[in-house]
Amino acid sequence: MSNNTTMDQSTAKPPRLSPLNQRRLATFFNNQRAKWSLWLFLIVFSASLFSEFIANDKPLLVIFDGSVYAPVLKSYPETTFAGDFDTEADYSDPYVSDLIEAKGIIIWPMVPYAYDTHVSDLTTPAPSPPSHKNWLGTDDQARDVFARVIYGFRISILFALTLTIGSCIIGVLVGSLQGYYGGKVDLIGQRFLEIWGGLPVLFLLIIMANIVTPNFWWLLIIMLMFSWTSLVDVVRAEFLRGRNLEYVRAARALGVNNRTIMSRHILPNAMVATITLVPFLLTGAVTTLTSLDFLGFGMPPGSPSLGELVQQGKGNLHAPWLAVTAFGVLALMLTLLVFIGEGIRDAFDPRLVTAS
Amino acid sequence: MSLTQPHASPAAQQEPDTVNTPLLSIKDLSVAFHQASNSVTVVDKISFDIAHNETLALVGESGSGKSMTAHAIMKLLPYPVAHHPSGSITFEGDELLHYNQRQMQRLRGRRIGMIFQEPMTALNPLHTVEKQLSEVLILHRGLRQPALRTKVIELLHKVQIQSPEKRLKAYPHELSGGQRQRVMIAMALANEPTLLIADEPTTALDVTVQREILGLLQNLQKEMGMAILLITHDLGVVRHMANRVAVMHQGKLIELQDSEALFDAPQQEYTRTLLNSHPKGMPLTPSDTNKESLLETKQLSVSFPLNKPLFGKPTRFVHAVKNISLKLTAGQTLGVVGESGSGKSTLAMAILRLLDAQGEITFQKNKLHELNEKKLRPLRKHMQVVFQDPFASLSPRMTVAEIIAEGLSVHTELDHSNREQAVIKVMDEVGLLAADRHRYPHEFSGGQRQRIAIARALVLNPKLLILDEPTSALDRAVQVQVIDLLRDLQHKRGLTYLFISHDLNVVKALSHQVLVMKGGEMVEYGNAREVLEKPQQAYTQRLLQASFLN
Fold it and tell me: Which of B115, B120, B114, B117 has its CA nearest to residue B175?
């Protein structure tokens, strides 16, 4: 047991967040626009993560003959429900649904179409205008636009998030090494970046599209190869400045090794610049994926994508709900991200924080 | 007095009776800042007058509100965040607080001139000396070429810049610190103001240059007949310059007296501590038993390449440290003295092997110059450093406990609770409250921060402590405390100090030996008493003379 005085002194507990970060959080949440944008974005994004339960051509639950089935999670052959084939049951087929409803009930999701379901019972030729069954109408292949939008939103955000996180990891790593070691490492790194930045990304994507069928991961890898460079400059600049700070020199004099100095003493400084940039990288990634899909070099045909919807809108000007939906969704998503980004930027701005 | 002077009676104030009417009269002036929802008062109801041709010194520690007062006179505060809850500023019979932006612009630089502390940042680095000086003349007097150039040259001549014709096209970075300050003075005096506000005009300058600038200001004052409001924390400067002294403390004016009276018989307790707070005491008497040398350098040189050719080796160098050989006995203090740019800090960095150097460094019989970083790491435990600026040398994102314990995690195998105990012990030793260890550096004052930096170095039980200007960023009273602490620690722990400073008062209070440096070279080296009392070299003599050593 330690003596009494030290017991008294050790009652003070370290705060969980540094006061600086507490103040930043407070500043961010004081910004009403950013706060509401963040909540709205989080709600929409988390909802879209459960797209399969919102819009699907498979029922959520089937109670048949006393047993409970969850077709949304597991595939059952038609024979389970006393059908004829060993293949998976097509629940939208009136024959199958009649079979089930004879001996049980079907609970459908809110929208009974998946992104690739061809709506068969349209009264007008596709693309059909919005109706009580297809809230945002159908596209020119008779697929429900609302279903495609929520799946497309999810894939856009997931793509953008993965791309941004990947870019941050590589960019911060390269930037910090260049900035901290300086000299030859920096010189060679900078020249490499200049050459690398000069490569035409779009041509590479077109060439790649001829060699492999582009899918989510291929696109991600190719985009990652070029998008990491955007963070290198800011992080490098912070490290170039940071390595000569007195507390960094003091740490070197203490004998702290380079890795610890970089991660503990300089990286927090560089993180401000990084975090400030992240929301804008996100919007950039969303836009990039959309434009690739629009041009036809993006996701494989049939995938739910906002870019493809834009293209359909352009191709079917007589069906304005396509273009309007695509525009609305993209505008909403990018606006929310930009508002959040602005909020973060202001929260990390030392001048605005101290002035308020 | 009422808060505002009635505007109806300007005639009464514009009497030619300049003896009785003060040039500038400040009454009940307060300055407050809006912060979040409340307002913080930084200057609290101060009143003083400045007569024609008089020098009034405004003295106080940093944060006492002296600069705020000066900026309020020029209305340079960040309005509307700053505001004046009360007070009046009357200059030549006019109420300045009622002036609008336009009237102020006509006043600034014309009737009131101002010089700032940092001449490097106060001059625009993108414009030549001539352009910056001309700007003031064009704005306020509408001068045109060729009269303009003649006037600029005349001004530069007046502030004693050598061959001013050649200096017209110079950019600020091409001038030395002293020359920059001269240009600043020339700008402030261009329109022959009746009042010059000098905000710490010599703080950023070396002592010898400081002497020259102060002399120049005095001459110009006599020649042009203007009043000076001198803001400074340096009492040596005050005694040298001021007719009257106003002492400020925590936003309040606590004493206003004639200079001589104030220095002879200060009325307030605070003024007395301020006057008495110059580093006192003598270095410890070294024990005779311990004569072992701890650190030795032979022909230590540091040079930086000026050109970096793509192929081959650099051919031109600047020699920051040239052939320094020194010997430091265990338990003693070596003071390294010199002006800025003399290579003192570079020498320290080279000894710590934080910079590449040529020559030999022997520390505890280890030849440091032969070791690589990995082999050096265990030795770093025994040689620690405290830097000049306590605001820059502590990571703002770590708590005090984390900062102090960092070295422990590198050099020892202590577990968490033992580390905590070590931190508490060392904080206690340097005079900090151990309960504060979970707070962040920005919550501490300058002196406390310097104690944290010392604790960080001491927690490893070093043999050698390199102190790189540890007191120069601190107020006088705090300086004295830090020096007492250092002396105390040396006594208790038998530490060896390499003490770097430009301040001879401080060096005198701590050092057994003194090394005087100039331009990277050793000028004089020897026993502290001999060097400081009977300097052999002309440069050392000049340095001693300029430093108001008493």
Answer: B120
Q: What is the ipTM of this complex?
A: 0.70
Distance (Å, rounded) from C-alpha B425 to C-alpha B430?
9
Residues in contact with B65: Cβ distance below 8 Å, sequence separation at least 6, in sequence order: B31, B42, B43, B44, B46, B248, B250, B251
Return phi, psi of residue A178, to 5°: -60, -45
Q: Are strands B244-249 and B55-59 parallel, antiparallel or unpaired?
A: parallel
Residue type, B217: L
Question: Does residue A261 contact residue A250 with C-beta atoms inside 8 Å?
Answer: no
Contacts of B380 in chain A (CB under 8 A): 253-255
| Number of CB atoms found within 10 A of residue B519's CB | 15
Give the span between the Cα atoms of A152 and A312, in whole angstroms. Answer: 14
Determine if the peptide bond prior to A127 is cis (ω within 30°). Answer: yes
Taking 3-state DSSP, the helix, strand and coil percentages for chain A, each rounded to the nearest 5, stand at 65, 5, 30
Q: Which residues in A lie closer than 8 A to residue B424 (C-beta atoms)? A: 6, 9-10
**Closest CA relative to residue B30, chosen from B99, B91, B77:** B77
Nearest to B386 by CA among B512, B302, B485: B485
On chain B, the residues whose CB falls within 8 A of the CB of A252 are 354
Answer for the pair A279, A34: CB distance below 8 angstroms, yes or no.
Answer: no
8 Å CB contact between A234 and A271: no
Amino acid making up residue A97: S
Interface test with A, best of B355, B386, B393 (most A CBs within 10 A): B393
Residue B141's CB is within 10 A of a number of other CB atoms, namely 14
Q: What are phi and psi of A315, to 5 degrees?
A: -75, -25
| Token reading at B471 | 């007191």
Tens digit of each residue's pLDDT, chain A (356 residues): 334 433 344 444 555 676 677 888 888 888 899 999 999 999 999 999 998 888 888 888 888 888 888 888 888 888 888 778 888 888 888 888 888 888 888 888 888 888 888 888 778 887 888 888 888 888 888 888 999 999 999 999 999 999 999 999 999 999 999 999 988 899 999 999 999 989 888 888 888 878 887 888 888 988 898 889 988 999 999 999 888 888 888 888 888 888 889 988 888 888 888 888 888 889 999 998 898 889 888 888 888 889 889 998 898 888 888 999 999 999 999 999 999 988 988 888 766 544 43
> CB–CB of B190/B116 below 8 Å?
no
Pairs of residues, one from chain A and one from chain B, whose beta carbons lie less than 8 Å apart: 84
How far, in Å, CA of A308 to CA of B59, rounded? 73
A253 and B380 within 8 Å at the Cβ level: the answer is yes
What is the nearest CA distance from B419 to chain A, expressed in angstroms? Answer: 13
In the 8-state DSSP scheme, what is residue A262?
I
B437 reaches A (C-beta below 8 A): yes
Which residue in the set B383, B399, B407 is minimally distant from A14, CB to CB?
B399
A246 to B387: CB separation less than 8 angstroms, yes or no: yes
Note whether B520 and B322 are within 8 A (CB): yes
Instruction: Using alpha carbons only, give the angle B203, B208, B214 rounded to the nearest 5 degrees.
Output: 60
The pTM (predicted TM-score) of the whole model is 0.73
Element (H, E) at B525: strand B521-527
H or E, element range at A347:
helix A320-347
CB contact under 8 Å between B397 and A18, yes or no, is yes
Distance between CA B160 and CA B181 in Å, rounded?
Answer: 11
Give contacts of B 453-472 with A, CB under 8 A: 453, 456, 460
Phi-psi region of A28 (alpha: psi -120 to 50; beta: other; left: phi over 0): alpha
Q: What residue of B is the nearest CA neighbor of A187? A: B310
Residues 6+ apart with CB under 8 A from A187: none
